Amino acid sequence: MTExxxxxxxxxxxxxxxxxxxxxxxxETIDTETNARAVALAEALGREAVPxxxxxxxxxxxxxxxxxxxxxxxxxxxxxVRSVLPGLGIHSATTRLREIPVHYGGNDGPDLADVAAHVGxxxxxxxxxxxxxxxxxACVGFCPGFAFLLGLPPELETPRRRTPRTxxxxxxxAIGGAQTGxxxxxxxxxxxxxxRTNLTLFDPTRPDPFFLRPGDExxxxxxxxxxxxxxxxxxxxxxxRREDDAFDAQSGVARDTGSDTGSxxxxxxxxxxxxxxxxxxxxxxxxxxxxxGRPGLMHLGVSPGGALDRRALVLGNRLLxxxxxxxxxxxxxxxxxxxxxxxxxxxxxxxxxxxxxxxTPLPCWQPFxxxxxxxxxxxxxxxxxxxxxxxxxxxxxxxxSPVMDSRSTDLFGRIGGIGGRALRTGDVLPLGPxxxxxxxxxxxxxxxxxxxxEDDAGPIRVVLGPQVDRFTAEGVATLLESxxxxxxxxxxxxxxxxxxxxxxxAGADTVSEGIAAGSIQVPGDGxxxxxxxxxxxxxxxxxxxxxxxxxxxxxxQLGPNxxxxxxxxxxxxxxxxxxxxxxxxEAGAVVEEAPVPQAGGAASAASGxxxxxxxxxxxxxxxxxxxxxxxxxxxxxxxxxxxxxxPPFTLEWxxxxxxxxVGEVNPPRVPVGVERPxxxxxxxxxxxxxxxxxxxxxxxxRRPGPDRPPYAEEGQQVEDGAVLGLIEVMxxxxxxxxPRAGVVEAFLVEDGATVQFGEPLxxxx
Length: 765
What we know:
Strand content: 25-35%
Number of helices: 12
Number of domains: 6
Strand order of the largest sheet: 35-28-29-32-31-34-27-36
Structural class: alpha+beta
């Protein structure tokens, strides 16, 4: 972090955020003057329209500037900041006065009495003082439209709740420490709820979705009467439900008021007159519509998000002749089942999850054709070390309605895709116009080897900072010298890593500031969190380093129990590596080959792979593994390959034939139920037990909540398809169901235990 001479009365400091960002610090303490200057600086930079700047995020004492390293660099951005600071005053920013009606207390403000008790004032006096103040929007973050307000009377400061709520109602007015704010949507939250407003603070369908912006002044206007507030709340709820129903009718989404995994929805074959559509038969673990995200809206709390492996999405689109940023389906953990109501061309990239079309295995990284009525399914879940996310790209792209110029699904902000959520049974995906020349598309191939997740090697590279000075030398060494494991508690927002604790030289709480993608923040327990593009936009934990852009896609492919290491590089080296990685996915990454007659199906993929490697002499352990995988997707039972070398090489393959049920579309690689003899005792000599196995790696729960009864008890008779438990992985929940009717003979793992894919969970008698 560097300092410069006073500029306009301010001594700014600058810290690089890898190769794509710069953090400008204007002070160390939270006060209205410093914040006003930060907001004014952000507006001034926006007016300057500096080429290459993508995001400008003011916060309490800082401004984060995100930029495209192909168009500018940190030195140019720093020069731009220093050029506008001399004429900057604390009143330079645009200010609007916004009034928010609030009903305090009662069901709308369940924590008002606790706040009153903490500050030693009657509840009515808390309301009077809270409503008498004029507040300033210091920054917007956490979720779209959530405004952090400065100006809370000091006597009303109240610590956050010891246990956060899992659901805070939309419109809740709350106090957290020295801050107050309004929740614009239902989210988890730990602030104290003192009231509620019926005003809509965030509505992506409005021309201006955001009621509050940085620099606005805010006043709360008390509303009298519980019934009035409840009546308006009911009207607001009915209006919201009517709008949801209207959206579902327009998009073809079957309304599902049950759980994502267990609700019954009428089947749909994917056909619709005059439209290209794909029906979701089964949503899988977590499949979402994603494009390249929503850059430029971080200052309003909207995460850039988008595909977490951008290279996989871009290359898939290039192979189809789509725009590189066209929306596709990001498939995490285990895949969905989709039925096509139209002819389509498709490409699968990223992790190999065993895709099959009507039971026939499909190649990755090359176009294939789908006929109307065919079903696409995935036969295996993600495996540690082999990538977590696959991408399905389709000619014309997925054509759901854009929200703020993007089709990407923001699961936390609940916008984009279909209803801002993962795909589920009964959804329908619209497609854009078909390819103009299908024959040409089918000949497109990558000019180099695909970026297979399992082939990625070496450490994840980082630039230290922006708060590296808050860590001990031992803490920095711990980051760079340790092996880190990805926790099951990770999600699209960030990877929680497990390993030795990173020691800080100062506390783990800092003044909240904008967060760059790849930031590695360290909370009080010393366990780092590597933040992904779908992160929240501001946060208050110190950041020890930032992952470089060239390695962000690798982060997006890491799943539970994968391990990684970090290595330090300079900002200049980070820029060089990132631009090099970008060049590998430009238009030249794809070429149209001359048509070559080949046998069809998976056998073609296997023979083609061997031919290419034989021509190049690329026989190494990774190449052999690829051939074995290709053979595994064929019906071959014996295979032998001899090469003269040098060095000489022999590959032999043999397996027994696996019989599948007629019409089976998505056979599990490990069966849910396996019949085996119960025991050798005479009384059970003819009995069999069905072994119920884990469909995913994760945490197995026998009950829906800590204070709820188990789904099933040992000795209980259960029906075919009855829920026996849940598996949680990366903040998604998947039901484990009985494969047949029977009696639960025994559970084989403890409630809350971590289980591996295919591990036995229970026996049915």
